[in-house]
């Protein structure tokens, strides 16, 4: 925090919270084009002269945020005390950050099982009653 507030760092400097996250980024220039900046999706095109970090100044550190680079999962790391960063390799890349509510898949599976249970509990008695009527009839 002291380093960030000291005023000694150039604006282009990214302060990563974990030293092991700093892997080969040089900080060379990159052209960034924001394709979409929505409430649950951020899409950016990065044309980088060398590997570097894309810092997203939104609260993407909360649970549920994920990142991809060219459609492949990428790590979203804490940076600049309150933001998140994605390590982007040299070249042109599509970076996408998106929010998936934690527990979405568990919720969908639970809903599917509950729906199946309701259908079975509704249909099974009707099927069994029809079978009984057929066996009882002369």
TrEMBL record:
Keywords: Membrane, Transmembrane, Transmembrane helix
Residue spans crossing the bilayer: 105-128
UniProt name for this protein: YfhO family protein
Organism, as annotated: Actinotalea soli
């Amino acid at each position: 925090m002291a380093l960030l507030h000291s005023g000694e760092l150039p604006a282009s400097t990214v302060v990563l919270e974990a030293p092991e996250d700093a892997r080969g980024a040089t900080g060379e220039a990159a052209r960034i084009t924001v394709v979409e900046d929505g409430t649950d999706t951020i899409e950016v095109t990065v044309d980088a002269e060398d590997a570097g970090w894309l810092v997203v100044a939104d609260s993407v550190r909360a649970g549920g945020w994920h990142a991809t680079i060219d459609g492949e999962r990428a790590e979203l790391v804490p940076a600049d005390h309150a933001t998140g960063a994605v390590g982007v390799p040299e070249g042109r890349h599509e970076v996408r950050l998106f929010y998936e509510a934690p527990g979405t898949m568990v919720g969908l599976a639970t809903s599917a099982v509950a729906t199946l249970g309701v259908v079975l509990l509704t249909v099974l008695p009707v099927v069994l009653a029809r079978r009984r009527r057929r066996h009882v009839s002369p």
